[in-house]
Specification:
Aspartate Aminotransferase, domain 1; alpha/beta; 7-stranded mixed sheet; 443 residues; 2 domains; 15 strands
Length: 443
């Protein structure tokens, strides 16, 4: 037994060194990674929990990257992938080739979207989905004889991905400063201000604007819902000015907010929906764009020759098979309803924490998207410190400090129970106390 422990420790140390030397991590502190290696090396997951190489169990309070909606370790999804791979692991969808999983998944998603968004273009993930939407929209206006309609409007503090177009649409400065080749035909408007949107349209000219895109609830920006009438007013402005309306549902889709798509919270039918993450609960990479009938009709009637856009893995058979089974689980287990009910429990738990701490400001939830705003005591933001303390205690959450925000964000799997929510928030409570004690002792 002692020899096995030594071997395991040697293996762990080897993994840490290999990680530091060879694994170029996305969205990470490269300096910290080089010096310290990974905070966790996970080996397995079950339900709302992950387990690392030391056997430590960690509560996944962010569904990894807002995406493991049905929880970890779902054998049904692994079985769906295996069954499809043994029959047809991969087949291209180029040149009008097709296969059953993509056909059935397209039909299923079309049945779930609001209105008549009945044409589904598949991608490998959220950034590709938004870039696809931008390219299709601009091509649509070319087909309509209005090639000057190129500008895409999004909101400040929005996040739409890290491909070139998606980065340009993102309304967070840090992502723009990373590169020096952002698309010049993107504009960003102040959150929740329809007056600001109308003023921008007047300035740029509606004949130059192709589309407006927004997350129904801004995720990376700090879990920011908008006021009840905002999107209805935006849709009216878009229709009046002949501008397409795109709902970015990469985070909010597939039950996360308590409805199947987040935009349904506001009673609006967009012209396009972009999706990814929850469509497979992260078990396979997959995303897509759902497109309204009147837009697809223009492509059908006016396109000549080949549509020069597509990805190798558009409509990947195994990914589509997993997505079909994932949607079946969401429906069968009533996970959108559970997200709504547990979201109310989560809000009450956050409010109880709020009462205990003068460092906690506004708290909010919409379904199983939640945020706790912090009031910093000192010059540095508190969120990164609290996240560090939650990790010590076995909870993954995320701190957002973009654009002056100091916020903790949460998105547990949609299978979470009331007991597990209280477990998660109890860890949060302890972590805030630990940071407060350290901050106040140094003041």
């Amino acid at each position: 037994m002692q020899e096995q422990k030594i071997i395991n420790q040697n293996m762990i140390e080897e993994l840490i060194e290999l990680d530091k030397k060879y694994y170029f991590h996305p969205t990470s502190s490269l300096k910290k990674q080089k010096q310290e290696g990974p905070d966790f090396i996970f080996t397995e997951g079950e339900g709302v929990y992950l387990k690392d190489v030391y056997g430590k169990k960690v509560f996944d309070g962010l569904s990894s990257l807002w995406n493991v909606n049905v929880g970890h370790g779902r054998k049904e999804l692994a079985d769906a992938a295996q069954q499809q791979m043994t029959k047809l692991a991969f087949s291209s969808s180029f040149a009008s080739l097709s296969h059953e999983p993509a056909i059935r998944l397209a039909a299923k998603i079309a049945s779930l979207t609001p209105g008549d968004l009945n044409s589904i273009f598949f991608t490998s993930g959220g950034s590709e989905s938004n870039d696809t939407a931008f390219k299709l929209i601009r091509h649509y206006w070319i087909l309509k004889g209005q090639p000057e309609k190129k500008i895409i409007i999004s909101r400040k503090r929005s996040y739409h991905g890290v491909a070139m177009g998606a980065t340009s649409a993102t309304g967070l400065d840090a992502f723009h400063h990373f590169t020096n080749s952002n698309d010049p035909d993107f504009r960003h408007v102040k959150n929740d201000s329809v007056e600001n949107l109308q003023a921008l349209i007047d300035k740029e000219g509606a004949d130059n604007i192709a589309a407006y895109i927004s997350e129904p609830v801004q995720g990376t920006g700090g879990v920011l819902p908008t006021h009840e009438d905002y999107f209805k007013q935006v849709k009216e402005i878009c229709e009046k000015n002949n501008i397409l309306f795109v709902a970015d549902e990469v985070i909010t889709g597939f039950g996360r907010t308590g409805t199947y798509f987040g935009i349904q919270q506001y009673g609006v039918e967009p012209d396009m929906i972009t999706f990814a993450k929850g469509v497979t609960s992260g078990y396979m990479p997959l995303g897509g764009v759902a497109i309204k009938e009147r837009i697809k009709e223009v492509f059908d009637s006016k396109s000549e020759g080949i549509l020069f856009h597509g990805y190798t893995y558009s409509g990947h058979p195994a990914a589509c098979a997993v997505a079909l089974k994932n949607i079946d689980i969401i429906e069968r287990e009533g996970l959108a309803r559970n997200a709504k009910e547990m979201g109310s429990v989560l809000l009450k738990a956050f409010q109880d924490v709020q009462k205990k701490h003068d460092t906690v400001g506004e708290v909010r939830t919409i379904g199983l998207l939640g945020a706790v705003e912090l009031i910093k005591k000192g010059e540095e933001p508190m969120a990164p410190k609290v996240v560090k303390e939650t990790l010590k205690r076995g909870l993954i959450c995320r701190g957002t400090i973009y654009e002056g925000s100091d916020t903790l964000v949460f998105a547990p799997p949609l299978i979470v129970t009331e007991e597990q929510i209280h477990e998660m928030v109890s860890i949060l409570d302890e972590a805030i106390f630990a940071v407060e004690e350290n901050v106040y002792s140094s003041m």
